[in-house]
Specification:
This protein is an alpha+beta fold. It is built from 1 helix and 4 strands; from the N terminus they run ββαββ.
């Protein structure tokens, strides 16, 4: 390439970003879900935490040895350029 020819290039500038939960009224709702750590079964996802958690009690009732559960939270986050 000669001095007058330029190839593809990328311009990257330093920027400060922050991330936080989206609070706009039109943001998707937070959704809760639980997963059995013994068998991998998943309860139904629900916007109501208590409703999602109720599945764990029903599941352990049917499977007394399944005592460990992971919580899955689906929450929309927003990146914002600082400054």
């Amino acid at each position: 390439m000669t001095g007058s020819q330029k190839g593809p290039h990328t311009v990257i500038r330093y920027a400060d970003w922050t991330i936080s939960p989206e609070t706009a009224p039109e943001a998707p709702p937070i959704v809760f879900e639980f997963r059995c750590m013994t068998c991998g079964a998943e309860g139904p996802a629900d916007e109501d935490f208590e409703a999602a958690r109720d599945w764990t009690f029903a599941h352990v009732g049917r499977n007394p040895s399944h005592r460990g559960y992971g919580e899955v939270i689906h929450r929309f986050w927003r990146m914002t350029l600082v400054g």
